[in-house]
Amino acid sequence: MKRRDFLATTTLALTGGLAMADLPKVQSLDDALRWLDKMDKAASVKTTGQWPMVSVLEHLAQSIEMSLDGFPQPKSALFQSTAGAAAFAFFKWRGRMSHGLAEPIPGAGPLTPQGDWRPGSVRLRAAIARFNASTGPLKPHFAYGALDKTDFALAHAFHIANHQDEIVIG
Prior knowledge:
Number of helices: 6
Largest sheet: 3 strands, antiparallel
């Protein structure tokens, strides 16, 4: 266990305070649905990051939707086949990803700047259901390039888990 994770867990246990939603971390899209169920039942849900909860959840939904519909501003084919593919291979090897948690998907539509997070949760659930039901070809990731459904599901789970770093469920 990393020192930071140990300290966060110990602090929460000792204070009896809010439980981090990332304990345990999402490892699959089914885990993501269970995590959303937990949020729906919570007394409070908040983010410690720059974006409000509704924006975080919309951003996660956008990523999944774009794997089906296409990313508006993909990186070059050269980038995707070199740096992008290497980045995904590293994240897959490591079992998690990390990225700027306030960086929008290039070219994505605007996120809701404030308000109730529940509509974002509904949108994320719908995106996951649509992805799971999809049998057609997926669109290349804007940075990683072409991924099969298994790898795209893993990329989405990693993405959600990374954003869990800033989400607190009480």
